[in-house]
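Question (not urgent): is this output format expected?
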Amino acid sequence: MKRADSEKQVSFLDDDEPVSSWVAPPPSSSEGKRSAEGEVASKKPGSSPSRSRKGHRFEAELDVAELDDRGRPVSTWGARGRELDRSVLIFMSRRMCYPGRHVVVAVHLIDSTPVPLFGRVRACEYEGDGLCRVELDLLEVPEDRPIRDWLDAIIRRLSAAR
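Got this back:
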């Protein structure tokens, strides 16, 4: 009778292939539940809740500058907008920004002067092809003189190019 039972078992593995004893881990306690901020936690392991939120598509040329410890814009580089909502701006840049640093952004609109935005870097991740995805938590633009001078310099540069 034992021989008849063993003949009924079918194996799709070759005799040389070891049988795996791997068992999937149980779901974490935070999956599918709301976090303290009210966002639904992502169900994919390793993905952040901020990546699951989508803003509005926002494709614009940007001039970006990180602020130094004294609140002055240092070097300026170009970037491209990707998403925008009420409190977050996401852009693609060839330069990384450290989380926690303050950044000033000049948004170039068609036939208009650049619009200044200001924020704190929430996250910066390498996307591929030499581009970084930078997430900014938008804050009120400070009326500091160095920031106004930086924006005036960009406006002068654009006026000279036209």
